Amino acid sequence: xxxxxxxxxxxxxxxxxxxxxxxxxxxxITVVLAARRLAAAQEAAAQLKAxxxxxxxxxxxxTKPNERTAAAQFLADKLGRLDILINNAGMxxxxxxxxxxxSETTPEEFQEIFDTNLFSVVALTREVLPLLRQSPAGRIVNxxxxxxxxxxxxxxxxxxxxxxxxxxxxSKVALNMFTVLLAHELADTSIKVNSAHPGWxxxxxxxxxxxxxxxxxxxxTSVELALLGADGPSGHFMHLGKELPW
Length: 246
Known about the structure:
Belongs to the short-chain dehydrogenases/reductases (SDR) family. This is SDR family oxidoreductase. Keywords: NADP, Oxidoreductase. It comes from Hymenobacter negativus. This protein has 246 residues and is an alpha/beta fold. It has helices spanning 15-26, 38-49, 65-79, 107-134, 150-154, 166-185, 215-226; strands spanning 6-9, 30-35, 55-59, 84-87, 139-143, 192-196, 237-239, 242-243. Helix 1 (15-26) packs across helix 7 and helix 3 runs parallel beside helix 4.
């Protein structure tokens, strides 16, 4: 039986996911890096092992039921526990996040975005919840976005500017609802569930050099929520220690 804490991070072969795994590993946590391609996951894990972090790479396309089940089985059989789940994997529309086209959103786009950003998060969480319930301090972190804040979108002048792509924004609104309701469901357990807004980060998906935060800065909120103490919040929407409006 694994004696130190174990964290599963989805979409962990690069960007915020990889950096989150690195920072958690530096806290002495065993990290399981999940990616759609096994080679990519194993290569990322090898980079962390090279600096002394206990890391494992597994194949996990979060949209595939058999791979979600296999991931849960790996955790149970290989490590015997799970303490932290970072639902980091996500996607944006193929076109752009910069051009509002609300009335033109297709059913196919909704399906693709929601499959990854919501349905798979709910399904994977359900798969590993039995292990998290056994942890003395289970933590679930859902990577959301302030683009999922109805309050901010509704403000006069919309401070979120051109980032008004319905499929993506709606998927994060729904993800935030999952966070709130799951936190209520698990209120009598040791598990804490929170949404994290990483900020506008210099990643391939986030906007490259025009974004505001470095990858290490963008990973801080996920790490902080993963390491919450017993008196920490649950069912909250956070960014760098500050609560965001739903």
